[in-house]
Amino acid sequence: MIHEAMFYEKLAESEVKCSLCAHRCRIKPGKRGICGIRENCERLLFSLVYGEVAREAVANIEQKPLYHYYPGSTAYSVGP
After folding, report:
1. Residues 56/78, Cβ–Cβ less than 8 Å
2. How would you write 13-66 as a 3-class SS string?
3. Pair 41, 2: CB distance under 8 Å
4. How large is the average pLDDT for residues 9-31?
5. With 0-12 CB in 10 A as exposed, 13-18 as middle and 19+ as buried, what is 80?
6. C-alpha separations of 12 from 41, 42, 66 in Å
7. Which residues make Cβ contacts (< 8 Å) with residue 56, sequence separation at least 6?
8. Which pLDDT belongs to residue 15?
9. Does the structure show a pLDDT above 70 at 27?
10. What is the DSSP letter of 80?
11. Is residue 78 within 8 Å of 55, Cβ to Cβ?
12. What is the pTM of this model?
């Protein structure tokens, strides 16, 4: 589902700057950011995977930045 994204700002020359991750992509009209899931359409940034789970994983907690919590347990991760 396509939905207008959050966490971005409009720049000059029809570009937008995505603020969702550390890449801070400057996205030109009709192009996508590094992640490939946010697209600039007429100075509006759209999420192309809104409401969808594209990846899920169960991993040892030690592999996550949460490794100090409940050592030896597992963590469930979801992402676009």
Report:
1. yes
2. CCCEEECCCCCCCEECCCCECCCCCEEEECCEEEECCCCCCCEEEEEEHHHCCC
3. no
4. 95
5. middle
6. 14, 12, 39
7. 76, 77, 78, 79
8. 96
9. yes
10. -
11. yes
12. 0.67
Residue 25 scores a pLDDT above 70: yes
What whole-number distance in Å separates Cα of residue 63 and Cα of residue 80? 19
- 7 vs 2: CA distance, rounded Å: 16
- What was the pLDDT predicted at 67? 64
CB atoms under 10 Å from CB of 47, counted, come to 21
pLDDT tier at 79, thresholds 50, 70, 90: confident
Residue in 46, 45, 76 with CA at minimum distance from that of residue 63: 76
Q: 80 and 67 in contact (C-beta within 8 Å)? A: no
Q: What does the pLDDT read at residue 54?
A: 75
Total Cβ atoms within 10 A of residue 8: 23
